Amino acid sequence: MSSVSSNELHNAMRAIGRSYQLMLNAFRMGDWDSFSDAFAVNCLVLPPDGIPIRGKDDVALMWKRLKDTGDIARIEIKSDEFVGGKELIVERGVYKLVDSQNKLAEQRRFMNVWRDVNGVQVLCTQMYQSTTRKA
């Protein structure tokens, strides 16, 4: 990766925040077309304890099934670190799945790779920790 200014990284992080807002709102509403817009067309997701999933439509289907079968009401994301620049960002953090009773259903570490596509940050790779961690 080329050297980038802290301003470029900050702008990319803000764009990722906007992408997360849209994605998480779409998840809560069950709007899977809007949810999938946060992902690159040819994205790759390495789910915990599962087989790799390719393509934004199949990724949205994975999350839809999780929401439908797991009583998951919302996703909470805490980013610990961002590295990169405008075109490519690596993010590390923790996500929580919260059920309809407002109880923690799952907590795992993740690593995301975001790519700038026409000024919008989209997820091109997601990797999740395989061992569940309860709070």
UniProtKB/TrEMBL annotation:
<protein>
    <submittedName>
        <fullName>SnoaL-like domain-containing protein</fullName>
    </submittedName>
</protein>
<dbReference type="InterPro" id="IPR032710">
    <property type="entry name" value="NTF2-like_dom_sf"/>
</dbReference>
